[in-house]
From TrEMBL:
<dbReference type="GO" id="GO:0005829">
    <property type="term" value="C:cytosol"/>
</dbReference>
<keyword id="KW-0560">Oxidoreductase</keyword>
<protein>
    <submittedName>
        <fullName>Benzoyl-CoA 2,3-epoxidase subunit BoxB</fullName>
        <ecNumber>1.14.13.208</ecNumber>
    </submittedName>
</protein>
<dbReference type="InterPro" id="IPR052703">
    <property type="entry name" value="Aromatic_CoA_ox/epox"/>
</dbReference>
<dbReference type="InterPro" id="IPR017635">
    <property type="entry name" value="Benzoyl_CoA_Oase_BoxB"/>
</dbReference>
<dbReference type="InterPro" id="IPR009078">
    <property type="entry name" value="Ferritin-like_SF"/>
</dbReference>
<dbReference type="InterPro" id="IPR012348">
    <property type="entry name" value="RNR-like"/>
</dbReference>
<dbReference type="GO" id="GO:0016491">
    <property type="term" value="F:oxidoreductase activity"/>
</dbReference>
<dbReference type="GO" id="GO:0010124">
    <property type="term" value="P:phenylacetate catabolic process"/>
</dbReference>
């Protein structure tokens, strides 16, 4: 399953056998490159960046590293190898052969799923495009760019499906993916969190930890799909996603480590003193965490959703690790608990599980995202500092679903609007917090040097020495 790099569009799908498709994609390619030039990492086009490129889709195919200019990165179309025996393993079509083409009755829903996923990919590149100007080291700058080129490739992955399986509508959707802009008034990206700003590196690390992890869960659910090309595409995307979450988890961890070092050296705990020492106080890190976590769990959608039921029963989108679950994979008559507000209190209610599948995926996500927070707390604990980071209650700061119209504290108490107003600044990053974090941002370009507010990583990329030149500016 090696990838043919001799072609204009690298691929492992025998693109040259389908001339019409190849021509359509070669027509889209310059539009993509124009978009990259306009909306990709600011001022970076001439840099040589130490990037990792997939040369095959098996795990060892990731060993290829070299300095490349990002506009020359070989974006392409890579699918996990097909299993000719594969069966649909959930929903009403359970046991039937997986679809190699789009079933007519599911066409509109599948297109919508693919477009929604595809839209998040260029959105995050747009959100992050200014960050290179304030990277805390060459190592971090390179990681940002690696994430960016891979999000670009994820866009290619979805555009391939649109072009290959959805005819003219698919081609129009592929164009629209290059026309929407993150945060644009008139033509924004589809999902809320992808129109938020990623103004500083703490936001970037929180985004790659929390929001790229939403990507992981969505991709895992799509990797179960009865539509085989979607399953195979998303499975390969997941190998790239793992790196994005690593960047987030290790990034936040290094920020915490540096803060703790300074707190211990100077024997300080007061956030004002911590800030005066030029590092980010743990309280601010908690408020950033609260923001990114709550905005991200909204991405899973309404807690009860007939669309989610349809997507599952039709075999389009499964659950996280569908194949490992011991139930009947049809879920008719099963129940699930969702949160609700009754008589002025937050409680739980049983609803049909099929309607609650967004909530099921959100709960799996929550479990997974807590792991990293526990590891961050280990860093604080090791430094002998009594502070602990916490994940806020699921109902905190929600904008989607039943919880959108109530105020809930991070501890999960239902509170009045006045109480919310009085405490919001303690719970969510304020303009002042963001201004402080922004004041620390400044580009560090000397190999092996790091900004004061972040600790160096434990090891280099591809085991390169600490003073390796990950980015050459030319
Ligand atoms: Fe992605
Ligand atoms: Fe990602």
């Amino acid at each position: 399953m090696s990838i043919d790099y001799s072609q204009k569009i690298p691929n492992n799908v025998n693109l040259s056998d389908d001339r019409a498709l190849q021509r359509a994609l070669e027509h889209w390619q310059p539009a993509f490159l124009d978009w990259w030039r306009d909306m990709g990492p600011d001022g970076s086009h001439n840099f040589d960046v130490y990037l990792r490129t997939a040369v095959s889709v098996d795990p060892s195919g990731w060993a290829h590293f070299e300095h490349v200019k990002m506009p020359d990165y070989r974006w392409g179309i890579f699918l996990q190898p097909a299993d000719p025996e594969r069966k649909i393993h959930f929903g009403e079509h359970k046991g039937e052969a997986a679809w190699q083409d789009v079933p007519g009755e599911h066409r509109a829903n599948l297109r919508r799923i693919i477009v929604t996923q595809g839209d998040t990919e260029p959105a995050s590149v747009e959100q992050q495009r200014h960050l290179g100007l304030t990277a805390p080291s060459l190592y971090d700058l390179r990681n940002l760019f690696q994430v960016n080129v891979e999000e670009g490739r994820h866009l290619w992955a979805m555009v391939y499906l649109l072009h290959r399986y959805f005819g003219r509508d698919g081609r129009e959707e592929a164009e629209a993916l290059l026309e929407r802009r993150s945060g644009d008034q008139d033509n924004p990206r589809i999902l809320g969190a992808f129109n938020e700003r990623t103004p500083d590196w703490l936001s970037f690390f929180m985004f790659t930890y929390f929001t790229d992890r939403d990507g992981k869960f969505q991709l895992c659910a799509l990797a179960e799909s009865g539509f085989d090309p979607l399953a195979r595409t998303t499975r390969f995307m997941l190998t790239e996603e793992a790196h994005h979450m690593f960047v987030g988890e290790s990034g936040v961890s290094r920020v915490i480590q540096r803060t703790c070092e300074v707190m211990r050296e100077r024997g300080i705990e007061d956030p004002e003193q911590v800030r005066a020492a030029g590092v980010i106080d743990l309280e601010t890190i908690q408020r950033y965490l609260n923001f990114h976590y709550s905005v991200t769990i909204d991405l899973f959608g309404a807690d009860q959703s007939s669309n989610a039921a349809t997507f599952y029963s039709a075999g389009l989108k499964g659950r996280f690790e569908e194949g490992k679950r011991a139930d009947d994979h049809v879920l008719k008559g099963d129940a699930y608990r969702v949160l609700e507000v009754r008589d002025g209190r937050l409680g739980e209610r049983e609803v049909p599980m099929l309607n609650a599948l967004n909530e099921v995926l959100r709960d799996d996500y929550i479990k997974d995202s807590m792991g990293g927070v526990a590891r961050w707390n280990k860093v604080i604990e090791k430094a002998g500092i009594p502070f602990r980071l916490t994940v806020p209650h699921k109902a905190f700061n929600r904008k989607i679903g039943t919880l959108a119209n109530v105020h809930v504290s991070p501890q999960g108490e239902l509170i009045s609007e006045a109480e919310w107003k009085a405490n919001e600044r303690k719970w969510l990053a304020t303009d002042e917090d963001r201004a402080f974090v922004a004041s620390l941002m400044g580009r560090v370009v000397e190999p092996g040097k790091y900004a004061n507010w972040i600790a160096p990583p434990a090891v280099g990329i591809n085991r390169q020495p600490m003073d390796f030149e990950y980015v050459r500016f030319n």
